[in-house]
Amino acid sequence: MSSTKQRASQACDACRQRRIRCQVDISHDDESDRICGRCRLANLPCTFNMPMKRRGPPAKKRRTSFHNASKSDVEQLEAAETTSRVISPRFPDVVPALLPEDDNEQQCYAGSASLISKFCSEPLFNALMQDYIGLLYPVLPVVHLPTFVSDLGNYRHRIDQDFGRFVLALCAVTISVRPDRFVDFKKIDPDFSFSTRLQAIDCVQSIINKTKPPDYYDHSTVEKWAIPLCLGRAYAYLGNRKAIYYHFSEGHALMQDLGCHRTSTYASLDHVEAQLRKKAFWLTAITYTHVRPEDPWWDSLRDRLVFEEYQASELFPLILDDEYITRGALLEQPHTRPSLMVGFMALALINNCLVSIMRDPAVSLFSTTMDCGSDRDSLGACTCGRHIIPSPLAGLLRSRLSTLHRVVADLPLELGPHKPLGPSLDQARSLQYETMRLNLHITYRWVQSLLIERLISLSRIGSEDRADLWDMLQNVCAELLMFVKQMTQEVLVLHGTSLSYKIRQTAASLLDHPFLPGSAASNRAQEQIKAFADILASLDAIHAKNVVVLGGGVLGRRIGYNVVIRDINQKQCDEALQYISENVATFATKATTGRSSGTVSATLDLEDALQGAWIVFECVPEILELKIDAFAELERLAPKDCILASNSSSYKSSEMIVKVNDDTKTRILNCHYIMPPVNRVVELMTDGHTFPDLIQWLSDRHAEAGLSPYIAVKESTGFIFNRIWAAIKRECLMVLAEGVSTPEQLDKAWMEILGCSFDPCMSMDSVGLDTVALIEKHYIKERGLSSGFTVDYLQSKYLDHGKLGMKSDKGGLYPKVQPAVVPAASTAVESAPEKKLVVLDMGLGQPLAGKGPAEIVYSGRLLEVSLDGKIQRVISKNLPLPDGVDFCDNKLYYTNMGIPSQNDGSVVSVNLDGTGSTTIIPPGKIYTPKQISIDQIAKKLYVTDRECCRIWRSNTDGSDLEIIIDTSTLPTERTTPGDVMSQCVGVTVAPRLGIFFWTQKGPSKGNLGRIFSAYIDFPTGCTALDREDIRTIADKLPECIDLDYVESSNTLYWTDRGEVPFGNCLYKAQLDDQGRMAEKPQNYNEAIGLKVDAQNDVIYVTDLGGSIWRCGMDGTDKRKVLDEQTSCFTGLTLV
Question: Which Pfam families does the record associate with it (predicted)?
Answer without folding.
Answer: 3HCDH, 3HCDH_N, Fungal_trans, Zn_clus
